[in-house]
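Beta-galactosidase (Amycolatopsis dendrobii), 926 aa
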Amino acid sequence: MTQVNRRRFLSGGIAVAGGGVLGAFGVSGTAEAAPDARPPQVGGGEIGSGWTFVAADGTAADGSVLASAQNVAGLKPAVVPGTPLTSMIANGEYPDPLYGRIVTDTVPDSLKDTGYWYRVAFRVPRLVPGQRFWLQFAGINYLGTVWLNGTRVGTVEGAFKREVFEVTDIVAEADGVAWLAVLVGKLDYADPPALPSYASGVTRGGRNGGPTGITLKNGPTFFCTAGWDWLPTIPDRDLGIWQPVTWRTTGPVRVADVQVASTLSQDLRTAEVAVSLALDSAAGESVVVTGSLDGQGFRRTVSVPAGASSVVLTSKEIACLRVDRPKLWWPNGYGEPYRYRLAVGVESGGQVHDERTVDFGIRRIEYTTPMRSPSGTVSQCLAITVNNQPILVMGGNWGLDEALKRIPRDRVRAQVRLHRDANLNVIRNWNGQSSTEDFFAACDEYGILVWQDFFCSTEGPPAENVARDLANIRDCIVRFRNHPSILLWCGGNEGPPPQPLIDGLDALVAELDPQRVVLTSSAGDTGKNPVDGYRSGGPYHWVPPAQHFSLNDGTQWPPFHNEVGSYSIPTLEFMRKMLPEASWEHPDDFWADRDVNGNGGNGGGAGYLRLTAERYGEVRNLADFARKSQLMNYECIRAIYEAPVAHMRSAGPYPRTGVIMWMTNPAQPSFVWQMYSHDLEAHSAFYAVQHACRRVNVVLDARTFDVVVANHSREAVRGRVDVSLYGLDGAEFGRASFPVGGVGPADRGVVGSVASALKRAPAEVAFVRLVLRDLRGLEVVRSFSWVESPGREAGFAGLDEMPAAAVSVIAGVSRGPDGGEVVVDVRNIGESVALMLHLQVYDVRTGERVLPATFSDNYVNVVGGESVSVRARLDSDQVRRHPRVGVRVDGWKIDERASRLRGRGVAVTFNRDALDVSPAVPEFGR
């Protein structure tokens, strides 16, 4: 079997390392002493294989026995990092409960009612004089007690706190092998499970956090696993060693922490870098701090006392810490997110004691702008400026990275990359539930700013142990503060934490990271110099696009909205994957466990189905629901972002400064609050976000039918907007051209209106195509909308009466050492509009979708005679696993006989399952 580890997702099987007495338990992290007379003192590795586990109430053995070579009955292979449930799934005890099943019917909720022992044996080096040995835990949920070679070495308290234990004396007595045991304690407070009910119209009893919310009393844990309106109750509550366990050797002086703080001048021409080292020395001595920044080396001799101490390096001592004309870290869409690399170490007598490498960014953030509130007072409102460039925040909320904490690095990077590709610039890490080094490193790489919440929510009582909460907050700040992606710190969700937590958080940020702003909660700030002008509060359900434009027309307070969302139905293929076949055409509790009731908005799942039918005509079957929902997704979610875009900066009196959609990343397979599905397939919601958040855009105001040019860039936009209006038959019935005299940087401008022209539409439904061209007449960006004719609003059922479109689709694939690229050329060879033409890459052998495979554009709209070319990038692993790929095509209405499909080394086919919308299922949605 193959070892399951954090670098793979949903892979199965666990290896037990073979070989003699250790074969039963496994040995990893091998590090042999070097043959040289003066072996290096610095080394280490991850203890990632060979783990076993057992429920604490299923064994009488204690830590002294488990942390030894004694045989212990009942141990089974474990996934580390992972949770008990992920280990049980890997061992075949339970199927994956998120697909085709109701979680609480599949896995007993009693998994939460015990702690768990984890055990592993790993090789250790033979220590040389002065060498020290450290055990490092990056995250245990919820409480951990650590034993090594029969000795209790310490505890870990709270899911988000690291612990480092010096175990030099224990390892020095070991004979090349150390036995590690960790008791993961159960939660102190836990509710019974919250159960799904489709008929109720609400999710899991209509209450987040379980029946009483008592789980929040535990303090720093994954409290959302008690059950939320976007997450089922997770039976083991994601207990376990959920982050890596590593070991490390150093010399007498350990570098316990490195803080890098940069101060960028107002003119962006120079940056001062300060490096603070926290050192832990076994004895007082003189050492040399060595290092390099961007290739420039430095050395400085310092005296280090025994115990904990600190050393601060600035440009006064180290010339290269003053950076002239620095390369800046920019948010996505504004420039390269450049990162500098600092290498730093401590040595004496030519022997390196310890060394660290830190990647950091140089950027300058301003957080507020003065704005007169409705009360008449002028307050400092949340409005982000980075490197002197005003940034309209266009973000997404993450509730949890993955329901069962199956978060290998590659998956986390892919999730963040999708946000980059969707043109977003912020992720709000809701209640800090996704706080990992992999997450922040990916945000650094892709230019995504992070609104970092901490661990308090209004959905239950506050944490009982305030000191534990603050200790976890302190460690999070210290651990992640070097990441340029972190925008701000925030106390919690939708309401203020208790005052001791507020005071403690404010003091911690002032002490540890004073360059960043700290907010009391996502709903408001009560700090010494409070930040105003932002709120949470929805709507969280589907509303017409015009309503979002009304809520964001520049007259509504406040200007920054950090939670607003909608239903977001995935593709037909994914719905069939996440539901049992018996439920495909019959919405039921399986749908409810996938959150179709949302928060009760739209009347729950049944109400949303009725709304879809009212807007787009009778829903005939699951395929018809899928295609109509893609249009529902697109028009509402695009408006969530386009409405603020159309009313930023010069719109008044309250111009929009930011919007963060609830949510963009799904923790589980879901019908709501996402822009891609749990298996990372981008459906229409993703492309709605991508289109709305382009840095230069042309927007049709869904309420007024004004044509707005939005400019997030640093240069003025000039040119013209060409407007074309089409009827249901595809014939053009109107056109106009509006000059764009100059829309300034980070601003918007209304350039014209199509309201009167739409009143002359030949039917109740019309299509509007907007093309922004530069001064040379070259296309910059285009936008396409289907709209109701003003005064004749009757929904979009008429779209089913439009003639089917004839299209030519030609696809090819190229492969290279770093992956491949699928190129698809689409042309409308008929007269009718090709509406929401959807492309999928699939494996020809299996028929399965190749994921993630995000096109440069998708759900494309093409009028007669028009063509587009789109691309999907495949990485080298995808090319290896899928040697023969194809492209599937579906859309609103396609004339298959009149269409032409052709492949160049790649199959091109119609997605007939998705196009099979005619057979009516009378019971569907009832």
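The domain at 252-360 is CATH 2.60.40.10 (Immunoglobulin-like). DSSP finds 17 helices and 45 strands in the chain. ok done for today
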